[in-house]
Amino acid sequence: MEIRIEPSWKSVLSNEFEKPYFGKLISFVKAEYSSNEFKCFPPGPQIFSAFDHCAFDKTQVVIIGQDPYHGLGQANGLCFSVYDGIPFPPSLVNIFKEIQTDLQKPIPISGNLERWADQGVLLLNATLTVRQGQAGSHQNKGWETFTDAVIEELSAQKEQLVFMLWGGFAKKKGSGIDRTKHLVLESGHPSPLSANKGHWFGNKHFSQANEFLTSVGKKKIDW
Asked: Could you read off the pLDDT of 204-215 as tens digits, one per residue?
């Protein structure tokens, strides 16, 4: 199967695409998406949207999510992001609230985070696909191995990135990042369960990211 992914990523990950686990993963995904019993998200052309909107060469910030949204019409291939016109899921509401207090920016009209990705924010879910209404249904099929490789290549080949690790899952997934040359920001998850216990609000990750980027001569993100 031809993997349609932005060229700079295709070059970096070419060895990964040749590994046996990846062939099995793609066969599984194709079978799931062709099933008549259920829908899968995001739509097929958006599975690699995080990469297509944020080239390897342009990546400045990495935000690690877990699963795509599994509600109808929500997932668009970028973690925490939804299509224009879709109501904001609770975690995204809390992300925007933190940006509002951290940077004094108004809550946006759209929850589509392509505007971040196009500036160099890689919005990476650990698992890139899911069945409708079945959270975690495509876990442990190979996606995690693939996205671990993505993080490993970013850590090894890039300099002075900002990694945002929200919640225990993301912290564990990012545990191998080289912290001697990248900024790693950690906090609780923006989901209401964590945020309302005080583990999310006030983390100031968005201002910290911009301060770091400008300090190393990079352009800050318009959050």
From this structure: 999 999 999 999
- Count of Cβ atoms closer than 10 Å to residue 48 Cβ: 18
Please spell the DSSP secondary structure of 121-186, one letter per residue. EEEEESS--EETTBTTTTTTSSHHHHHHHHHHHHHHH-SS-EEEEEHHHHHHHTTTS-TTTSEEEE
> Cis before residue 20, ω within 30 degrees of 0?
no
d(CA 56, CA 210): 19
Spatial contact of 180 and 155, defined as CB atoms under 8 Å apart: no
Return the SS3 of 55: coil
Taking the C-alpha atoms of residue 125 and residue 1, their distance in angstroms, rounded to an integer, is: 22
Residue pair 211/104 in contact by the 8 Å Cβ criterion: no
CB atoms within 10 A of CB 7: 11
Note the pLDDT tens digit of each residue in 38-62: 999 999 999 999 999 999 999 999 9
Instruction: Give the position of tokens 């369960």.
Output: 193
Q: Which residues are catalytic?
A: 67
Q: How far apart are CA 78 and CA 75, in angstroms?
A: 7
Instruction: Say if residues 25 and 1 touch (Cβ distance below 8 Å).
Output: no
Q: Note the pTM of the prediction, 2 decimals.
A: 0.96
Q: Name the β-bridge partners of 86.
A: none
Work out whether strand 183-187 and strand 162-166 pair parallel, antiparallel, or are unpaired: parallel
